[in-house]
Amino acid sequence: MSFFETERLIIRNWCQSDLPYYIELNRNEEVRKYFPDVLSKERSELIFDIMQNEIESTKLGLFAVTLKDGSFIGFIGSLFMQEDTFIPYSPFYEIGWRLLPEYWGKGYATEGAQGLLKYMQKFNISYAYAYTSVHNHESLNVIKKLNMEKLTTFHHPVYRNGEQVLFRRALHDTY
């Protein structure tokens, strides 16, 4: 089921044929550079099922993303971040993206995230948050293009290069 489209992308729920691509995405050292580790096939399968169920029940989550020609490129979406003693301002709705490297630098993450922010306005959510490593210049560029406000930097002991930067954007006019 497709939830929204952009000029070049289809944002939809996962289907079983996406699982090998999702496993590949999570095994890729370059993709996982700023995460604690790469994911095993078993961990990816478990998370895959959780993501499908979350989208089916809430209509929000980490959505599969394809080009309009059907090529799988990764995921873009939001998830509710529970209160975390290491992450300021939590709990909140976090937005994020993860694309296969061959699709980096083409504007897909920005385009999909812009569509996601518009889609999230349908829900009773005041703000979308994003955080990433202070060294992840690619994601920081996407966040900048989304006009997100920098809130703070913080150290998260689970992440490689533990220093993270947190951003926020209102989903509705605040005046």
Automatic annotation (TrEMBL):
Gene3D superfamilies: 3.40.630.30. This is GNAT family N-acetyltransferase. InterPro entries: Acyl_CoA_acyltransferase, GNAT_dom, N-acetyltransferase. It comes from Macrococcus armenti. Pfam families: Acetyltransf_3. Residues 9-175 form the N-acetyltransferase domain. PROSITE patterns: GNAT (PS51186). It comes from the Bacteria. PANTHER family: GNAT FAMILY, PUTATIVE (AFU_ORTHOLOGUE AFUA_3G00765)-RELATED-RELATED, N-ACETYLTRANSFERASE DOMAIN-CONTAINING PROTEIN.
